[in-house]
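quick one
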Amino acid sequence: MTTSNSPVLTLDNVSKDFRQGDEIIHALRPTDLDIYAGEFVGILGPSGSGKSTMLTIMGGLRSPGNGRVFINGEKFSELKEKQRAEIRHRKIGFVLQAAGLVPFLQINDQFSLYDRVAGTKPNFDRRDDLMKSLDISKYGKSYPGDLSGGERQRAAIAVALYHDPALILADEPTAALDTQRAMTVAKILADQTHERDKATVMVTHDERLLDVCDRVLQMKDGELTTIR
Ligand SMILES: Nc1ncnc2c1ncn2[C@@H]1O[C@H](COP(=O)(O)OP(=O)(O)OP(=O)(O)O)[C@@H](O)[C@H]1O
Ligand SMILES: [Mg+2]
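structure w/ adenosine-5'-triphosphate:
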C-alpha cells in the first residue's frame, strides 16, 4: 500500500496540438490534474474530443506539446525514451482501444512474456486469480484469435493488471462487451483500484459505468472539466 499523499499522476499545464493540413487542432488544451492512489477516475466525452490523446500522454506513449507529466513525483515526460519505457513497464498498465495481445501466443504465455521482458518471476496465483475474476479461466491455452472480442478484451485487461501497476490507463476497456460484462469489468477495475491502492483512469462512452467511479471528468474540444 502507498503511504504517501503525493499524487501517482500529475499533469502540469499539459497541452497538445496537431496539424491537419492547414488547420491546427487543439487536441488537448492546457490541463492541470492530480490523480491519487485509490482513485478511480472516469472520463467522458464525444469522439475526437481528445480523450485518447490525453491518455497516451499520461502513459508516456506520446510527448506533451507543452507542460509536464509526473509519475510518483518523478518528471516522467522529460526523461529519455529508454527510462520512460522502464517506468512504463514497472508502474503502468495499459488497456488500449486496440487490445494489446500478441496474436501468436497462447493467453498463458502472454503473462510469461511480460515476465521475460521485465525480468520478473512468474506469479501463477495472481495470473489465475485475474483470469478467474475476468471469467476467462478456461482460455489459458487458447490463442487470442480463438476468443470472442469480449473475451479478448478481458484477457488484455488481465495481462495489463498482472504486474500490479500503480497507474492503470484504460481507453474504453468495455467497448466490446455487453452491458452486464461491461459493468463487471468496470467493477473489477474499481476493486483493483480500491483494494490495491492504484490510480486508475478509464475513458468510456457508457455513462452507466460512471456509478463505480470516484471522480468523473468530461472532455470537450480538448478541454477537461470536472462533472463530479
Ligand atoms: N496523430 C495525429 N495527428 C493529427 N491529428 C490527430 C492525431 N491524433 C489525434 N488527432 C486529432 O486530435 C483530436 C483528438 O483525437 P483523440 O483520438 O484524442 O479523440 P478521442 O476523444 O479519443 O476520440 P474517440 O472517442 O473517437 O476515440 C481529433 O480531432 C483527432 O483527429
Ligand atoms: Mg479515443
